Amino acid sequence: MANRSVTTTYSRRPPASASALLRPLAAAEPQRRPRRMSGQFRDRFVLVVASGGSVTQRNGIRTLIFLVICGLSAITAAAVGIDDNLPGVLLAFLAATAFVLAFVHPWRTPGQFRRLLYASASGFVGFGLLHNVFEAIAPSSGGSGSLYDLLSGAAAVLFLLAMLVCPSGMLVGAVGAVVLSIRNRRHPASGPATAT
Description:
Blueprint: H1 18-28, H2 39-50, H3 57-80, H4 86-104, H5 110-140, H6 146-186
Helix pairs in contact: 2-3, 3-4, 4-6, 5-6
């Protein structure tokens, strides 16, 4: 077989530049100035972020209530003192629980609360181990200076996370998973009926 070359000619004009194509669109559309975030939108955005992604105003108000309870409980616990003082420790635990609830109260599936339970349990172990490691390393760093202060501060923060926030997360995760599992058994989600 012989190779034949085929030439094709196009009757179309060559394409115009992109700016020439966009000129009619730019002329028809009025010039817009960049908009700043309005106060109402900004407030709604803050509520959405604080409530864990929920858009409803009711969830935003609940989030704000939980955060206020957290702040007041933490201030009261600091005023009372948490060093070998049961009321102070209970107030600190209430503050940590309210902080956790501020972010998880919109959740509606038991799986989300189970993941919170597992993450809190692993955080309890991990933060506890890291606290012990930093407590052991801090005295060997020279006993004074900025490195000692940094390690001691990190150990204190890890201790508070392990002893207050993680148990609160485990409590909220366990109770939420059980309650929502029972609620979903009583009132199953309505979906398409399947014939078997």
